[in-house]
């Protein structure tokens, strides 16, 4: 076994000593990801959350698989009518099919959540990697900038920024995505910085540096692969938070608007009629809550599997 394999087999990416990797069927030592996958396969919470996430993603990608009704086809003559036919959840105050609008509402919520998380991930990855690797004055400046961002009240900052970015005639998808991405990268940056600081002091990084590897190669080829696990876990949890944040902004009237369909808009529109017809408010809330819970449970399961201190 080479020195690199020996080091990585007895130390976790965060520098926490663990037991040597058990060999797989081919006789080769398993990686941290291999051990984590074995733990995830035995975790019921992981499978439940993964199935729920898969169903929601399928609903967002192909809503026509779940309903053939048009979510924008409304008739006041059937306002507040109960369930019947393909309208499993009844009709809202405008006579729209609540079930169809709930199914199609998953698309905008998931799109905003995914792209906002991707934007936050890119910013957090760059800031955390640079601060953790170079340290000194760059780390001090970036750390203070993160502290300033954390000092901004999230809801207040999101309302102000979303209003400034949103145009009078658009649906607000881009504005909300950019808002959540710009305000949501700080936790990921801190986690990445800590992981990079722990990884850059490992023996395999010192060996690569002595062999002539430059800073970019060290960060991309050696430090990043051994620091990314905890960062991905943070992004998984952040995805669920962003979906809930989009619904919150839409409920407050500064998120999605126009002819956009989302769970937050449905909850906001149904609020005044909750006493006479609670269904249009209850069902989008249930779908929103289950989706956010599924992503958070998935992130927790992945975190527990990749955390070497729990082994």
Keywords:
311 residues; MetI-like fold; elongated
Give structural notes.
With 311 residues, this protein is mainly alpha-helical. It has a single domain (31-65, 87-310), classed as MetI-like fold (Orthogonal Bundle), CATH 1.10.3720.10. Helix content is 66%, strand content 0%.
As for the number of domains, it is: 1
- Mean pLDDT, nearest integer? 81
Largest sheet: none
Tell me what portion of residues adopts beta-strand conformation: under 5%
Q: Which residues form runs of ≥5 with pLDDT under 50? A: 1-21
How far from one another are the termini? 23 Å
Query: Total number of helical segments?
Result: 13
Please give the CATH architecture: Orthogonal Bundle
Summarize the helix and strand pattern as letters: HHHHHHHHHHHHH
- Find the count of extended strands (DSSP E, 2+ residues): 0
Query: From the helix content, strand content and strand pairing, which structural class follows?
Result: mainly alpha
The CATH superfamily title: MetI-like
Report the helical percentage.
55-70%
Quick one: overall form? elongated
Rg measurement, Å: 23 Å
CATH topology name, in short, is: MetI-like fold
CATH class: Mainly Alpha
In short:
The chain is mainly alpha-helical. It has helices at 3-10, 32-41, 44-61, 98-134, 136-151, 154-165, 173-183, 186-199, 203-210, 215-223, 228-252, 263-270, 279-306.
Helix and strand topology:
Blueprint: H1 3-10, H2 32-41, H3 44-61, H4 98-134, H5 136-151, H6 154-165, H7 173-183, H8 186-199, H9 203-210, H10 215-223, H11 228-252, H12 263-270, H13 279-306
């Amino acid at each position: 076994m080479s020195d690199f394999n020996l080091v990585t087999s007895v130390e976790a990416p965060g520098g926490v000593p663990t037991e040597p990797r058990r060999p797989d069927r081919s006789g080769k030592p398993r990686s941290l990801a291999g051990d984590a996958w074995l733990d995830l396969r035995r975790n019921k919470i992981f499978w439940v959350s993964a199935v729920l996430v898969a169903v929601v993603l399928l609903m967002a990608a192909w809503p026509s698989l779940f309903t053939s009704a048009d979510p924008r086809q409304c008739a006041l003559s059937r306002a507040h009518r109960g369930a019947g036919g393909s309208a499993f959840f009844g009709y809202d105050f405008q006579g729209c099919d609540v079930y169809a609008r709930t199914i199609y509402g998953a698309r905008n919520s998931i799109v905003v959540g995914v792209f906002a998380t991707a934007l936050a991930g890119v910013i957090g990855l760059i800031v955390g990697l640079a601060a953790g690797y170079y340290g000194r004055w760059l780390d001090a400046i970036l750390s203070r900038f993160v502290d300033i961002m954390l000092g901004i009240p999230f809801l207040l900052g999101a309302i102000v920024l979303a209003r400034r970015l949103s145009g009078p005639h658009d649906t607000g998808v881009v504005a909300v995505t950019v808002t959540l991405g710009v305000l949501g990268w700080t936790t990921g940056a801190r986690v990445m910085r800590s992981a990079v600081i722990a990884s850059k002091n490992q023996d395999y990084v010192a060996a690569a540096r002595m062999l002539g590897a430059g800073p970019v190669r060290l960060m991309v080829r050696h430090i990043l692969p051994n620091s990314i696990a905890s960062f991905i876990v943070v992004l998984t949890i952040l995805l669920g938070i962003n979906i809930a944040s989009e619904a919150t902004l839409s409920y407050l009237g500064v998120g999605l608007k126009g002819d956009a369909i989302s769970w937050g808009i449905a909850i906001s529109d149904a609020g005044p009629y909750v006493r006479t017809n609670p269904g249009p408010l209850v069902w989008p809330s249930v779908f929103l809550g289950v989706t956010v819970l599924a992503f958070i449970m998935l992130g927790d399961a992945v975190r527990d599997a990749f955390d070497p201190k729990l082994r």
